[in-house]
Fold:
Amino acid sequence: GIVHRDLKPSNVMVGEFGQVYVLDWGIAVSLERDPERRIPYVGDSTLPVGTPFYMAPELLSGDPEDIDPRTDVYLLGSILCELLSGNPPHVAGSMREITRKVSRSRPSLPDKAPAGLREICLKAMQLHPEYRYATVEEFQRALRLFQRSRATQLLLDDANERLGTFLEILAGDSTDGAEPAARFREACFSFRQVLLLSPDSEAAKDGLQT
Structure:
């Protein structure tokens, strides 16, 4: 029930053992009134806030009715945008131009960025909140699914390479020097690893059958 409203790379620290700390909760608001008044109620905040380079469009208006968890989803998308492109999403030569970029929300991502991450970033940074991930948890799930898919593809590429080497050895076209049985076992093991991650992978099933 808390919206941070200022998520950005400088407000996220990673510890020595991979633990993550979110810093600077100075403009965070609660979506419900806190009887102990530890965190301000969102309805009492009516001014534009946030860091312009990363700001969600709804933070420009200062309308508390527009603030909900999808605001932080947008800001996480802004962080991902910088990870992919090397720059914050709303960079320009003047505050007026930055504000215009925030209000349009059209992040520029490099073509070399992985397609799956591009899609996640663009969805998180949709201009209209209803088209974003509804919660931070949904955003996290999308990232984890991408990571799993990425790992599966890397394993599959490795398995196919080992299969290719094995077939070349059988055909007498390889200078690999390894015993065919060794490369056979390696290829089978790699395809089985893929199937552990993705049991429905037809490519892995076909490779194992081959």
In short: The CA atoms of residues 18 and 210 lie 41 Å apart. Residues 136-171 form the longest helix (36 residues). The chain has a mean pLDDT of 92.
